[in-house]
Amino acid sequence: MPRLLIIHHTPSPFMQAMFEAVVSGATDPDIEGVEVVRRAALAVSPTDVLEADGYLLGTPANLGYMSGALKHAFDVVYYPCLDSTRGRPFGCYLHGNEGTEGAEKGVTAITTGLGWTKAAEYVVVSGKPSKEALEACWELGATVAAQLME
After folding, report:
1. Cβ atoms of residues 24 and 138 within 8 Å
2. Which CATH number goes with the domain that contains 46?
3. How far, in Å, are 14, 130, 142 from residue 110 at the CA level?
4. Is the terminal CB of the chain with fewer CB neighbours within 10 Å at N or C?
5. Which domain does 12 fall in, by range?
6. pLDDT in tens, the chain (150 residues)
7. φ and ψ at 71, to 5 degrees?
8. What is the CB neighbour count within 10 angstroms for residue 37?
9. How many domains is the chain built from?
10. CA atoms within 13 A on the CB side of 17
């Protein structure tokens, strides 16, 4: 069964709402035959990444960059997963109060280095997530999960 790994750093109520919407989309009953695994960014291992067929990344934008937790996750998995995960699809959702461009650029640089394939546009939210923003998170989860269906 294909596995979708959600690697997230969820330190705030806004990130929690976005995370829950992503999980809801990825686990929609219409998505069949895809196992969804959730890992906190500080707990993810190379084995988690190697055993997954696709990825969803969630991070706040702190001081204009991805969270230290997501950066740590990339530091832990980058070289052990570099040659074995090329071509796998990923999506990303970010929350910031201002200046998310650095976080977007950082995630793009690292996932490009890993050779992952962007499966959908990033969902970027500033301030309190609106109903439309949460729907976009749901769509992101559903889109990446559906691409893994057998």
Report:
1. yes
2. 3.40.50.360
3. 25, 29, 23
4. C
5. 3-147
6. 999 999 999 999 999 999 999 999 999 999 999 999 999 999 999 999 999 999 999 999 988 899 999 999 999 999 999 999 999 999 999 999 888 999 999 999 999 999 999 999 999 999 999 999 999 999 999 999 999 997
7. -60, -40
8. 13
9. 1
10. 15
Q: How far apart are CA 99 and CA 75, in angstroms?
A: 23
SS3 labels along the chain: CCEEEEEECCCCHHHHHHHHHHHHHHCCCCCCCCEEEEEECCCCCHHHHHCCCEEEEEEEEECCEECHHHHHHHHHHHHHHCCCCCCCEEEEEEEECCCCHHHHHHHHHHHHHHCCEECCCCEEEECCCCHHHHHHHHHHHHHHHHCCCC
